[in-house]
């Protein structure tokens, strides 16, 4: 009871081989696309590496890059095989390789699916990484004289301007950290000294934000200092004022940006996966029909092609037995006589050599 | 004494015709490129039309666009003509058209050169337009409630951030305009009233700049207010001052941007002009060679081709006479001593109808 048995005439087999040759070459192109998508994602993540804390997010683009390269290789080989399958004599060259090739491609297709799913599952890790990274960046904003952090101010300012966002969750994050370095604070002034003293940790906190938080859509000049003090500015109410500063938090802005990229990439990878699956199915049919033709002996006759020779359950059981016996053959070989599994007759004939004698009489086997 | 005389065998003529057919099709492509360049320049100029006072700079991209379209048409026709020139019979179809075609293409090639020269000469006009446009933009920066000017603030802020520039020539331009609207000035505040009173035009001027002038490369938080008073800010040394705001003026930043674009476009158009000239020369040789073959009578013989039949001075003189006679035709005067001077060109090309007006055929 084969799974999805189909009948193939000679012309159908030839046509199938030709179509599969073209599809394999298209798959090489999609493999290149996968590779470049992975590269693009890697570059985008590295561009903002300063704002992301160390988390395991590099595995997604690396996976896509590896899968893309393997796709190119596998489909290139598949193209060569299918090209040769048009001619039955040339097929004999590939006969032994085809089954391992199909199994490898099956596992590889599974990897492509995993890659697609990873794109969607990276969301949580990314949010965590951005949260920590941005909090650190805001904390070290003022340290433009510390080596290793001197460009953090510029990075954060450009981030605010480019993504039209302010702070981690919002502009109020800037009220909780000291973003003005002590080098630029006049300690001799009374109000500076008072402010420093009033803070438990001796930090100079103000209700002001950097200039990069200013919203260009605002009809009035930007209010950056004394934001929560309504009376400090004429005709100003900070509770209702939405156009003065960027209201969105940078974590949300970056997350939206990366989610958009990864959803597009995930969709492309899913479509690639479906395409690879259809190519694999075609190659499987081609392989089984050509093997049956060879078994029948007449190269021009019709033959059957299938996905699995027996039903799904039987194939699973047989493979499990093979794996078990492989495991057992690595141990001391005393189970030949007593193991009930070996002597269960199956449809494929076991060849015990020219004598066709079961292995019970191994000492006499040639 | 023909100019640039060359002898062509039949095979050479056919090869020339085929080669010119190919070159004409490449010229159609270059015509499309010209059109594209003109369109690109138009879009770039219109993108910043708010800070550019329209002083007729748009004639340059318009010229390029029309020249590109005309190039496509002319070279398409040229391709058809050259394809037919391989066969002497088919050439007879085009015999009458070819001379006007060559003259038209010469005029058109001159237009391409004019377009290229215009790209380089527009620079001073552009600077003037930018100067006036930016001055107006800064003046109306605060008028975000006036229809027609409400987006000028956003445009100018974006410009300063994107091009990393401040003001017209520099940041001090902001000290001379009131960029804070009176809607946001508290008239009850005595310092505000004092400042307004101290100015002749009752403008609220201060030594401060908008936030978009702030440089992202500065190591310290941006100082936007009280910029002329260095002691008002702690540790505001020379280096801090240099890095605090964008130093460049927006006019020079935009000029650099546009000069780069115009120079590249100008160079491309010059190269296209040289190519068109080459094609025109080839077509002229082909035309004269084919005409001479027909005059000789034997389609397989060798023939001569040239650029001008006589020397440049003689050709200029005879053409000048033709134009004079055409002028006289409209007056009906047949006693002009110039008409009866025999010359090689006039006898063949001068229409005789001027002497025989009643007998026009």
General description of the model:
The complex is a heterodimer of chains A (366) and B (361). By secondary structure, chain A is mainly α. In chain A, 56% of the residues lie in helices and 2% in strands. Chain A has a two-stranded antiparallel sheet. Chain A starts with 5 loop residues before the first strand and ends in a 28-residue tail after the last helix. The mean pLDDT of chain A is 87. Chain B is mainly alpha-helical and 361 residues long. A two-stranded antiparallel sheet of chain B has the order 1-2. In chain B, helix 3 runs antiparallel to helix 8. Chain B starts with 5 loop residues before the first strand and ends in a 12-residue tail after the last helix. In chain B, 28% of the residues are buried. Chain A binds chain B through residues 144-145, 150, 153-154, 157-158, 161, 179-181, 183-186, 210-212, 214, 216-217, 219-222, 224, 233-235, and chain B through 144-145, 150, 153-154, 157-158, 161, 179-181, 183-186, 189, 210-212, 214, 216-217, 219-222, 224, 233-235.
Give me the strand/helix succession of chain B.
EHHHHHHHHEHH
Report the largest inter-chain contact: A-B, 29 and 30 residues
Instruction: Report the radius of gyration of chain B as a whole number of Å.
Output: 33 Å
Helical content band of chain A: 55-70%
Major sheet attributes of chain B: 2 strands, antiparallel
By helix and strand content of chain A, what is the structural category?
A: mainly alpha
GO cellular component, one term (chain B): plasma membrane
Family (chain B): Belongs to the PRPH2/ROM1 family.
Protein name (chain B): Peripherin 2-like b
Subcellular location (chain B): Membrane
Chain-wise SSE layout:
The complex is a heterodimer of chains A (366) and B (361).
Chain A: E1 6-8, H1 10-47, H2 59-85, H3 88-121, H4 123-139, H5 152-163, H6 190-198, H7 250-296, E2 303-305, H8 312-329, H9 335-338
Antiparallel strand pairs in A: 1-2
Chain B: E1 6-8, H1 10-47, H2 59-84, H3 88-121, H4 123-139, H5 152-163, H6 190-198, H7 238-244, H8 250-296, E2 303-305, H9 312-329, H10 344-349
Antiparallel strand pairs in B: 1-2
Helix pairs in contact in B: 1-2, 1-8, 2-3, 3-8, 4-8
